[in-house]
Amino acid sequence: MFNNSAFKRLKIASLLLGFVCLYSCNDEIVLDFSETSILVEDEAVVEINIPKALGSGNTAARINETLKDFANKALNIDAANTVKETIKENIASFGDSYKSFKKQMEEMSLAGTDLPIWEAIIDGEVLYKNETMVCIAMNSSINTGGAHGNIIMKFFNFDIATGKELKHADLFVNVGEFTAVVEKYYKKELLTTYENGSLDFKGAGFQLPKTLGFSDDGVIIFYDNFNTPSNEPLEFTIPYEVANKYLRV
To answer: From the CB of residue 214, how many other CB atoms can be counted at a distance below 10 Å?
Structure first.
């Protein structure tokens, strides 16, 4: 005979398990950010303002490690040096490189020369977040006295559940089809921005930029100044009403 009491206990246990699972799943995709801010004004100036994922899990750790790696590599201007483990160490290394440069000038009897102050500015911003991914824009501007500073901009798209950095194949159902859409937008943007402009992909055909961003308005397409006809960046946005059919996230 069916035990009604046992059935009730089983039903209650199932409900409790469901609530625990729901709470756990929701807890996994909640991802908040604070900011890491550092300002060092010595002989060389370093200013860093980058997002910091909160939490003790693997997701936050992986995201923070990736953003830290971007900052550390930007600060390492001497190819002979290896990138240090911490931002603090790489800031010190950046300052040491400037002091070494000053010493070389002195040894060349150029001690009275007005040397420009070296500056490193590294910024980051959370641009977009939904239930599956978060997009963070990172940029660095390193000025060591040249006519133009070295500027790098990169988008990072992370899986909220794991902290894994998402590549094009993770973001789009069919990368080739989305590339064709981007090419149409690119040609239109090029015609309105540059006279007789063209993009040289070294004979490889039209290509997506290495990283893509996301905002509330759509997918951000950004080509740096090394890939545009006038050595100026080119940026445009493909709205979600066009892009959604190609997106996995």
So the answer is: 25
Q: In what order do the strands lie in the sheet with 218-223?
A: 213-214, 218-223, 234-239
Hey, what are 148's tokens?
């133009």
Q: What are 126's strand-pairing partners? A: 136
Q: By the 8 A CB rule, do 156 and 135 touch?
A: yes
CA torsion 79-83-84-85 (nearest 10°) is: 180
> Order of strands, edge to edge, in the sheet holding 119-129?
33-41, 45-53, 119-129, 133-143, 150-159
pLDDT tens track, the chain, 249 positions: 445 554 344 444 444 445 444 444 444 467 999 999 999 998 899 999 999 999 989 999 999 999 999 999 999 988 778 899 999 999 999 999 998 888 887 777 655 567 788 999 999 999 999 999 999 999 999 998 776 678 899 999 999 999 999 999 999 999 999 999 999 998 888 777 766 555 556 566 788 999 999 999 999 999 886 655 556 678 999 999 999 999 998
The distance in angstroms from the start CA to the end CA of the chain is 50
Query: CB–CB of 211/205 below 8 Å?
Result: no
Joined tokens for residue 65: 């490690």
The owner of tokens 């040609």 is 187
DSSP H/E element including 224: none
Question: Which helix or strand (DSSP H or E) is residue 100 part of?
Answer: helix 87-107
Radius of gyration of the chain measured on its C-alpha atoms: 24
| Token pair belonging to 25 | 């799943």
